[in-house]
């Protein structure tokens, strides 16, 4: 009997363990199915990255043609044009500059600017000599948008032809550029005193050119305070003293005075000037009279 009971208990224990083991395996399989990572593809696509300002560099290369040198640095080339008659502009050379990316700006910064001047033809030399004789101005211009195709708008500068001749064609350009890469102004120097130009034609026609880039700065914004607003108001006109009329009287004097006499202050009366003192004095006098009245009444009664 005891052996039968033991066999039944043992069989029951085996069944319970088998069921528990099956349930544990099924849970483990479900967890593996949910948490197992997805199979990776055989070949992963590679992402292409571009350096900052690559779009601007591409447009600069398209605009300038050969923008970069042998070192592989990005660059830009834009033309310089001159006019010897004040009307027609013809090519006079090319500016070349390197591009340096700047944090926070979509357009790179121009650096290491160089100018390659074209040699002048005999016709241009004769026109320049004639310009010196007429004391005329030698004009130059560059495109305002150096990253786009050459064309309007332009930034123009000028110098007296006699000054450039006395300087022996030593010149310097200042390109004032904003953060968007636009040329705002073109400075031009000849390193001589133009007020003492000799007016003699040049003997040599070789240029010595230099150039620099001047970055624009944003001015600080002023707070709209009361003092700053008052500073913007126009000053008030000073008050003129009353006009004293001399010679003539009556209607003639009034006509000479005009409207100035009407604006004169009217003279104050005696009461208007001293009312502040008269009122307290009157009150004090009334008090003294009121105090003296009972004394007089008492004296009159005693006499009776």
UniProtKB/TrEMBL annotation:
Subcellular location(s) of the protein: Endoplasmic reticulum membrane
GO CC terms, sorted: endoplasmic reticulum membrane
UniProt keyword terms in alphabetical order: Endoplasmic reticulum, Membrane, Signal, Transmembrane, Transmembrane helix
Signal peptide: 1-22
Keyword Translocase attached: no
Entry keyword annotation includes Transmembrane helix: yes
Membrane topology, record value: Single-pass type I membrane protein
UniProt superkingdom: Eukaryota
Region (Disordered): 36-67, 228-267
Annotated Gly residues bias: 245-258
Low complexity: bias regions: 41-63
Pfam families found in the cross-reference section: ECM10
Recorded family membership: Belongs to the EMC10 family.
The protein's name in its UniProt record: ER membrane protein complex subunit 10
């Amino acid at each position: 009997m005891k052996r039968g009971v033991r066999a039944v208990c043992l069989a029951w224990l085996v069944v319970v363990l088998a069921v528990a083991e099956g349930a544990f395996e099924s849970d483990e399989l479900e967890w593996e199915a949910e948490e197992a990572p997805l199979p990776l593809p055989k070949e992963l696509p590679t992402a292409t990255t571009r350096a900052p300002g690559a779009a601007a560099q591409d447009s600069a290369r398209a605009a300038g043609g050969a923008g970069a040198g042998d070192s592989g640095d990005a660059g830009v080339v834009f033309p310089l044009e001159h006019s010897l008659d004040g009307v027609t502009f013809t090519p006079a050379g090319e500016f070349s500059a390197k591009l340096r990316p700047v944090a926070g700006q979509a357009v790179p910064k121009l650096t290491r600017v160089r100018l390659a001047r074209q040699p002048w033809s005999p016709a241009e030399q004769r026109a320049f000599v004639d310009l010196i004789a007429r004391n005329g101005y030698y004009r130059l211009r560059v495109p305002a948008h150096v990253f786009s195709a050459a064309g309007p708008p332009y930034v123009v500068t000028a110098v007296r032809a006699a000054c450039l001749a006395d300087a022996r064609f030593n010149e310097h350009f200042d390109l004032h550029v904003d953060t968007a890469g636009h040329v705002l102004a073109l400075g031009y120097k000849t390193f001589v005193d133009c007020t003492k130009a000799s007016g003699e034609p040049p003997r040599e026609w070789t240029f010595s050119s230099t150039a620099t880039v001047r970055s624009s700065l944003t001015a600080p914004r002023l707070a709209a305070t009361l003092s700053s607003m008052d500073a913007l108001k126009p000053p008030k006109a000073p008050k003129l003293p009353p006009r004293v009329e001399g010679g003539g009287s009556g209607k003639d004097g009034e006509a000479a005075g005009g409207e100035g006499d009407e604006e004169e202050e009217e003279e104050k009366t005696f009461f208007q000037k001293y009312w502040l003192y008269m009122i307290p004095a009157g009150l004090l006098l009334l008090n003294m009279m009121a105090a003296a009245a009972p004394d007089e009444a008492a004296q009159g009664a005693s006499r009776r």
